[in-house]
Design brief:
The chain is mostly helical. Among the domains are: 4-62, no CATH class; 244-296, no CATH class; 374-495, no CATH class. The protein contains 19 helices and 16 strands. The protein has a three-stranded antiparallel β-sheet with strand order 5-6-7. A three-stranded antiparallel β-sheet has the order 8-11-12, covered by helices on one side.
Length: 495
């Protein structure tokens, strides 16, 4: 065994006993001895009278630190000054040689972590973190982050959810092409040449199984055939077991779900790949987590991101004077755009939705994922106008935009607002000249972040946009402070 989450009975017992701060703590621990030896000691000792599981864990493992726990904020400083000061707190040095049997995947360059329980780099978080780094002129850190993701693509043929061994079954929303585009603002067209191999590797990961899908219009891994040569993507995970970092929660949910446990676990993991973990967006029963069916859904935002990846590779091929390759990618992007508009746009509702390929119907919970076609300029002006009306009338709250319109207790539902979605909506609205609404979103969000900062001295992972006096809640852990993407979007909007 190489990792703590492979400890079998000991791992199961520790996670189910909930003796550590949360489910992520134990797999992030560092063993004080060889894991095989620790497992053998556990089998010998656990049946002895007076055995104390917590004491056994304390004796054999070092608990991981909470990132930024020793940082003391000064509210005499502005929120901008605070966010800028946190970059050094949240930056980790290269870890080419992590401790033996650590779950941490090594990275060759410095990287920025979100903060709190999140002690590793996260994929889609990092794009929004980069927005703040750009605002502060920290191109060195941006380049380091992009180089690290290119390294992960080289090592693993995809970018994992985060640089932990227990994330090696899934990725996250594919923002790498946007990172390259952002870095190209500093490096020029050379950025596209440098990262083209990595961009192609990421594309191959998401398009794995394309020929099988085209042959008989079925779903294969992350691809879904929809007839008429339409192919779009879904979220997935290579594994169908409980997530090590949320083991107890997954096992307990399986006890209440009518789904076979392996199917349930795959759907949970696929939702984790989406970054929206968790939301009623993925539930067939709006209030029922056990009804999660993520792998049946073609997400509108994912496919907009992949269209951008196709366009970015095409642009890189142009720079390299490879017109035939560029033409192929532009054709793929065009076909994807047509499929997005066909399957995800609802002319009656005037809104973009996910698509359920099993029922062959749009999945009708309204969510901020509808802003991605506006961010990437896929929508027509009339479509953007219709979406903007719904955003203003239904989603705009005193503190910014709510993620969905359903209050379910899940953290990616109302009343919570999240920095990355505020940014996608803000830029999406500006793309279609809805400047008044875009600026209202910006003003309300910045006011929320600043208000909470003045009261608490913290920038947090998510916010209650209905009432800034109430804490954002839901999910499998407490609201975290730090916080990479909040800092990034805040500073990006302040520019």
């Amino acid at each position: 065994m190489d990792y703590i989450h492979e400890l079998g009975p000991l791992f199961h017992d520790v996670q189910m006993a909930a003796i550590l701060p949360d489910g992520k703590t134990f797999p992030d621990c560092l063993p004080k001895a060889n894991l095989q030896y620790i497992a053998e000691q556990y089998e010998q000792q656990k049946r002895k009278q007076g055995f104390d599981l917590k004491a056994f864990v304390d004796a054999h493992f070092n608990l991981p630190p909470v990132v930024g726990s020793d940082f003391v904020s000064d509210t005499n400083h502005s929120a901008e000054q605070h966010a800028a000061a946190l970059w050094d707190v949240l930056t980790r040095k290269p870890d080419a040689e992590p401790p033996s049997q650590s779950s941490l995947l090594p990275l060759p360059n410095p990287y920025v972590v979100p903060g709190g329980r999140f002690r590793e780099v996260y994929y889609w978080d990092s794009y929004f973190t980069m927005l703040g780094l750009r605002a502060n002129g920290r191109w060195d850190l941006i380049e380091n982050l992009v180089n690290n993701f290119a390294y992960l693509l080289e090592q693993h043929s995809f970018i994992p959810n985060g640089n932990r061994s227990y994330y090696l079954g899934r990725s996250q929303p594919p923002f790498f092409s946007l990172m390259v585009k952002l870095l190209a603002e500093h490096l020029g067209e050379a950025a596209y040449l440098r990262y083209l191999p990595a961009l192609v590797t990421e594309y191959k990961f998401w398009m794995d199984g394309l020929e099988l899908v085209k042959q008989d219009n079925r779903a294969v891994v992350r691809l879904v055939g929809l007839g008429g040569n339409h192919v779009l993507n879904r979220y997935w995970d290579a594994f169908d077991t409980p997530r090590p970092e949320s083991y107890r929660e997954d096992v307990e949910l399986a006890m209440t779900s009518p789904q076979p446990s392996s199917q349930l676990y795959r759907n949970i993991r696929a939702a984790a790949e989406s970054g929206w973990d968790f939301s009623s967006r993925w539930f067939s029963d709006r209030m029922g987590f056990a009804s999660i069916y993520t792998t049946d859904i073609v997400p509108v935002d994912l496919n907009c991101l992949l269209l951008h990846l196709e366009d970015t590779i095409a642009h890189a091929c142009d720079v390299l004077d490879k017109p035939s390759d560029a033409k192929l990618l532009r054709k793929a992007a065009h076909e994807r755009k047509q499929a997005i508009l066909h399957f995800c746009w609802d002319v009656t509702d005037g809104f973009f939705f996910d698509y359920n390929f099993k029922t062959m119907e749009r999945s009708h919970p309204r969510t901020l994922a509808a802003m991605f076609p506006l961010f990437f300029k896929i929508a027509s002006q009339s479509q953007a106008n219709a979406v903007a009306d719904i955003i203003e009338n239904d989603f705009l709250k005193p503190g910014g935009l709510t993620t969905t319109l359903s209050e379910t207790g899940q953290q990616w539902d109302a009343p919570n607002g999240w920095a990355p979605l505020q940014w996608m909506a803000y830029i999406g609205l500006k793309n279609y000249s809805h400047d008044r609404l875009a600026n209202e979103v910006r003003t309300r969000w910045l006011n929320t972040v600043e208000s909470v900062y003045q009261k608490t001295g913290k920038m947090t992972e998510k916010y209650n946009v209905f009432n800034d006096a109430a804490h954002a809640g839901g999910g499998e852990y407490e609201n975290q402070d730090g916080f990479g993407w909040t800092n990034g979007v805040y500073l990006g909007m302040k520019v």
